[in-house]
Amino acid sequence: MSRTDPFRPVDDIARTLARELIDGACHAALATLRPDLGLPSVSRIALATDESGGPVTLISTLADHTQALRTNPACALLVGDPGKTGDPLTHPRLTLHATARFISRESTDHTALRSRYLTLRPKAKLYVDFADFGFVRFDISDALLNGGFGKAWRLTQADLWRDQRTT
């Protein structure tokens, strides 16, 4: 009988590629569910990492995706850019399944995230302190890595962090 499972066994190549995609991402496609209709919606967001390498963003309360995440924090992020040439489907990309967690401005976590975020995304200094902006940390449950045609892996949370971090 032929093999029908398209996913390869997870190895260090997959783990390294996934970490490179997360660490190198300046933005991501964020998928949420619209609270009014329950339909999926996708937005582009700025992305950085926290001190542990987990994805974080700075978003406005005025954005539809912020309201969607407050209603239902389950979401997905797609990171990885198509190359300048060739078929976009041959370039690696990573889907992260996550739960969004809003960070209170009064917390020490906010202070640390603000400092790191501005180090990684200095242009955000223009709006980081606006009253409608806040940090969201994405707690990853699992991921799908597509390294190009015929190269797919299902990754666990532990596969994404060498220290076996859990949220």
General description of the model:
The protein is an alpha+beta fold and 167 residues long. Helices cover 23% and strands 34% of the residues. Strands 1, 2, 3, 4, 5, 6, 7 and 8 form an eight-stranded antiparallel sheet that branches. A hairpin with a 5-residue loop joins strand 7 and strand 8. The model has no long low-confidence stretch (mean pLDDT 92).
How would the blueprint of this fold be written?
Blueprint lengths: L11 H13 L2 E7 L6 E7 L1 E2 L5 E6 L3 H8 L2 E6 L13 E10 L5 H13 L12 E14 L5 E5 H4 L7
Antiparallel strand pairs: 1-2, 1-5, 3-4, 4-7, 5-6, 6-7, 7-8
Secondary-structure content class: alpha+beta
What is the succession of H and E elements? Answer: HEEEEHEEHEEH
Strand content: 25-35%
Nearest-angstrom radius of gyration? 17 Å
How many helices does DSSP assign? 4
Quantity of strands, as a count: 8
Distance between the termini: 39 Å
Helical coverage, percent range: 10-25%
Q: Would you tell me the overall average pLDDT?
A: 92
Anisotropy-based shape: globular
Instruction: Give start-end ranges of low-pLDDT stretches.
Output: none
Largest sheet: 8 strands, antiparallel
